[in-house]
Amino acid sequence: MTATSRDGAAPDPVVTDPEDLLALDRQVCFALAVASRSVIALYRPLLDAMGITHPQYLVLLALWEQSPLSVKQLSGLLQLDPGTLSPLLKRLEAIGYVTRRRDPRDERALAVELTKDGRALREQALRVPPAIMERLGMSVEELEVLHRSLTRVIAAAAP
Hints:
- The chain is mostly helical.
- It has a single domain (27-153), classed as Arc Repressor Mutant, subunit A (Orthogonal Bundle).
- It has helices at 28-50, 54-65, 71-78, 82-94, 116-125, 128-136, 140-157; strands at 69-70, 98-103, 106-114.
- It has a 3-stranded antiparallel beta sheet.
- The termini are far apart.
- The model has no long low-confidence stretch (mean pLDDT 90).
């Protein structure tokens, strides 16, 4: 049985031309969206075991590099607006991984700092990258090439 459109005519055939620029499997946006969802899903069980979400993990990664950081600095590093970042920080503070306080050098700025437990969580997090590399079946070198390419895409797409 052949599907028909509402007017009874046969539907347009699916275009299978490999040169078609509108082919779904040629869309960078589609590949990036699926890759993003798929890779973040690989992180989920590892981060669940640590009691954190992927966005919280990203905040902690930034703070493990440098703590304290202002909310503005974190916002810039993570490319998240402060309105999105604020609830993440509140939850991280509620579970005891960060503290938020006014910066003594600038009372308008809020400084975010790791707690002792937040610093200790880094030890558990050290297991995450090797587990992801193993699951993806990719070497550090392959992932670095991918990272450089994605960084170029991010820079080119920036406003």
